[in-house]
């Protein structure tokens, strides 16, 4: 997505990149988040979080973003290269314990063949 600008950062911030994933990506839904995945030409995986005001107060939105940033960082080495991920957290993600949310996150990525974890990771 970044043309001639060096390595792509892990977290997507540009609106153009996010809009591209929204248009060209495929959607996977769970009870706690929606995940949109788009295959692109970059060598590394990229990750973005989209959360609207309907989600709740700024405190809740920021907490959800922190949770999913940490989930993204934790699986970064295991992600399949050449994919961009866009996460749309749902309100329910704040009610789950972090360990359950992490297990759901990892199993969703693994079922979609977007990440590989060792048997001890799950």
Tags for this model:
alpha+beta, 4-stranded mixed β-sheet, Ribosomal Protein S5, domain 2
Summarize the structure.
By secondary structure, the chain is of the alpha+beta class. It is built from 3 helices and 4 strands, in the order H-E-E-E-H-E-H.
Structure in words:
The protein is an alpha+beta fold and 122 residues long. It has a single domain, classed as Ribosomal Protein S5, domain 2, CATH 3.30.230. It is 34% helix and 18% strand. It contains 3 helices and 4 strands, in the order αβββαβα. The chain has helices at 15-24, 58-75, 98-111; strands at 26-29, 33-39, 46-49, 83-89. A 4-stranded mixed sheet has the order 1-2-4-3, with helices on both faces. A hairpin with a 3-residue loop joins strand 1 (26-29) and strand 2. The longest helix has 18 residues, at 58-75. The termini are far apart. The relative contact order is 0.21.
